[in-house]
Design a protein that fits this description.
13% strand, two-stranded antiparallel sheet, alpha+beta, globular
Length: 156
C-alpha cells in the first residue's frame, strides 16, 4: 500500500504536476495517491529573476521538475554548470552546499537540491555582491532552449 500526499493550493495559484501547468480558480486540496512530480508556482524562479550563477543552477534544477521528460537533456546542462561553479566559487560554505545539491540531483532528489541551492542565495549575495552584474547569464535561455528542442523532437 502506498502512502498518499495532500497538497493545499490557493485560488489562482499555479502548480506544475508531471510537466503540466495547472491553475486552480479556488482554494482546493489535492491528494496524490501515487508518486508524482510537482512544484508550486510560488517556488518557481522566473527567467527574469535568474541574476546570479546559483540562481541559474536553481533554474536548471527547477526545469528538471517542470519538464521531467526532458531531464536527460537538462541534466547535461546541469553537470557542466555544477562543475564550473564548484571550480569557481572559493567560499567553503558555498562549495559545501553545491556538493550537497549535486549529490541530491544525482540521487534524483530535486526538491532537496532546490532547497539546498536556495539556502545558498544569501551567501552568494553577501560574498559576491555586485560581481555578477557584467556576466551574460544564459542558463535560463539554455534551459528553455533545451525544453523547446525536446518538445520539437517529441512532436516530430
Amino acid at each position: 500500500m502506498s502512502s498518499s500526499f495532500k497538497l493545499a493550493v490557493q485560488a489562482n495559484q499555479k502548480v506544475f504536476i508531471n510537466g503540466a501547468v495547472i491553475r486552480v480558480d479556488r482554494k482546493v486540496g489535492i491528494e496524490f495517491l501515487n508518486n508524482v512530480t510537482f512544484l508550486l508556482g510560488s517556488h518557481v524562479l522566473q527567467p527574469e529573476d535568474v541574476t546570479t550563477p546559483l540562481r541559474q543552477l536553481y533554474f536548471v534544477v527547477q526545469s528538471m521538475l517542470i519538464d521531467p521528460a526532458n531531464r536527460p537533456n537538462i541534466m547535461q546542462l546541469y553537470r557542466g554548470m555544477s562543475a564550473a561553479m564548484l571550480g569557481a566559487y572559493q567560499d567553503p560554505q558555498i562549495q559545501h552546499g553545491l556538493k550537497i545539491a549535486d549529490s541530491e540531483v544525482m540521487s534524483e532528489r530535486d526538491y532537496d537540491a532546490l532547497r539546498s541551492l536556495k539556502g545558498l542565495f544569501h551567501l552568494e549575495a553577501e560574498t559576491y555582491a555586485g560581481a555578477f552584474s557584467s556576466l551574460g547569464l544564459l542558463a535560463a535561455d539554455q534551459a528553455n532552449e533545451a525544453v523547446a528542442n525536446s518538445d520539437a523532437s517529441r512532436k516530430g
